[in-house]
Write a structure and sequence with these properties.
38% helix; alpha/beta; 4-stranded mixed β-sheet; globular; TIM Barrel; 11% strand; two-stranded parallel ribbon
Length: 229
């Protein structure tokens, strides 16, 4: 569902976009893991950027999760993986994500030293953007840019205003409002607006997403990767 949409977006933008990778392949067949890895490496070689998107994207029970974190979990159907975690649990889960990333991309000697593939992801994006107060520091200490719902913070601590438009999980009755918001933030003369595209957006929102991208490019914005900030 996702792969056929990437190259048309690449052609529209003039370069590969940033792809968020959920690294856990727990329970997947070896052949599926191999195909997943090879597809990502091929996209990387074509100019797409790979970033780390949590660990499993599904939250597990944690004794270290706050009440607010539990509320966030309910709001997102259990996908707010890092929401409200304690410092220890946040660090542990982040490490699980990093370990899964390394395992995915060093599964065999053939792909152990892929040219241009950084052992440390360019950025870390917590699933659903719900987080905890420890995670931004932990991510930066691990050498990755940190993304939240409204900003991007580099490893060195430089913060960019970065509003995001996303259609995933939005009721159909609010889609026109979301499209209007996207148009608004793309025309702002400041900040780094983002478009968060999800598999569930296709095929219904395909035309809308392409129109938003064209609007941004016609407004003299250019596509940048996390690693360039």
């Amino acid at each position: 569902m996702v792969l056929p949409e990437l190259h048309p977006l690449q052609e529209l933008c003039g370069r590969g976009i940033s792809l968020l990778v959920i690294p856990s392949v727990e329970g997947a067949a070896l052949e599926d893991v191999r195909e997943f890895r090879e597809t990502l490496l091929q996209l990387k070689s074509e100019g797409f950027e790979l970033a780390l998107h949590g660990y499993k994207h599904r939250a597990e029970f944690s004794q270290g999760r706050s009440y607010i974190g539990l509320v966030d979990m309910n709001l997102t159907g259990g996908e707010a993986e890092f929401a409200g975690l304690s410092e220890f649990e946040s660090s542990r889960l982040l490490q699980c994500g990093q370990d899964a990333w390394r395992t995915l991309f060093s599964h065999d000697d053939e792909h152990r030293d892929v040219e241009g593939l950084d052992p440390v992801p360019a950025a870390f994006i917590p699933p659903t953007w719900y987080s905890n107060r420890f995670l931004p520091r932990q991510v930066r200490a691990a050498g990755m840019l940190y993304e939240d719902r409204f900003s991007l913070t580099t490893v060195k601590g430089k913060r960019y205003a970065s509003p995001v438009v996303s259609f995933a999980g939005i009721p159909k009755c609010f889609e026109k409002m979301a499209i209007a918001y996207a148009s608004f933030i793309m025309k702002l003369p400041m900040g780094i607006p983002r478009i968060a595209v999800h598999p569930v957006d296709y095929p219904r929102m395909r035309g809308v997403i392409r129109d938003i991208v064209r609007m941004a490019l016609n407004g003299r914005r250019t596509l940048i990767h996390y690693g360039e900030l």
